[in-house]
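Narrative of accomplishments. A recurring question from our advisory board has been how the design workflow behaves on a single, concrete structure rather than in aggregate. To address it, we present the structure tokens for one chain from the evaluation set, followed by the sequence designed for it. No filtering or post-editing was applied between the two.
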């Protein structure tokens, strides 16, 4: 028996995942699918079911369940791990922003991470099978994102990224030394470097924030 949980808000995607998996299973494998289309349904399935899942296929963006403060697939993953820690996690996402993908890996540590726009049915099957075997799988965009994040982090160190984050929170340049142990002149020099990095030498703080969002920094 293989128990599979799918939480995805697009019914056609759910059917595609099920059909792809069912067509690959041998007749010796009895597969049970449980499906939810939003956070509320996911909550009721996970909490109300004594069945333990071997693998969960989760979309990141899901209709929320405000009563239980479940706002996305990431909250559902936490719920699964609290109730079924042995369950393998496959994340399927429409996000392609470099830092968003990097943060998903760093913070969630899924067994598989795929960007919806760049995987084939064969990739999906490989990811599923690798995950069951305890092997990680990242789709093509993820590998490119990890390479890019490595280059970006080497160019924009943690202090520069902290400055960007503070600016995005509305902190004025003159007040940044109150949050980071550097001088105001150092802040100005680093801001100039950040603008050069984003190719906005004559840009404003708002331009920094806009470009930082494009890159997925904030």
């Amino acid at each position: 028996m293989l128990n599979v949980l799918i939480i995805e808000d697009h019914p056609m995607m759910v059917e595609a995942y099920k059909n792809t998996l069912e067509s690959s299973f041998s007749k010796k494998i009895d597969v049970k699918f449980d499906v939810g289309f939003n956070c509320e349904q996911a909550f009721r399935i996970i909490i109300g079911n004594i069945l333990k899942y071997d693998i969960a296929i989760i979309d990141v963006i899901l209709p929320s369940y405000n009563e239980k403060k479940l706002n996305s697939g990431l909250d559902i993953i936490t719920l699964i791990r609290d109730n079924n820690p042995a369950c393998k996690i496959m994340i399927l996402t429409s996000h392609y922003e470099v830092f968003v993908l990097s943060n998903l890996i760093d913070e969630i540590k899924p067994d598989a991470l795929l960007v919806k726009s760049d995987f084939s049915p064969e990739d999906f099957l490989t990811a599923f099978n690798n995950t069951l075997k305890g092997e990680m799988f990242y789709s093509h965009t993820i590998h490119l994102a990890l390479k890019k994040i490595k280059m970006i982090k080497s160019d924009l160190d943690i202090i520069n990224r902290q400055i960007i984050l503070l600016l995005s929170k509305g902190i004025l340049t003159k007040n940044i030394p109150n949050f980071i142990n550097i001088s105001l002149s150092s802040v100005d020099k680093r801001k100039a470097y950040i603008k050069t990095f984003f190719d906005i030498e004559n840009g404003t703080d708002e331009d920094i924030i806009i470009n930082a969002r494009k890159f997925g920094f904030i």
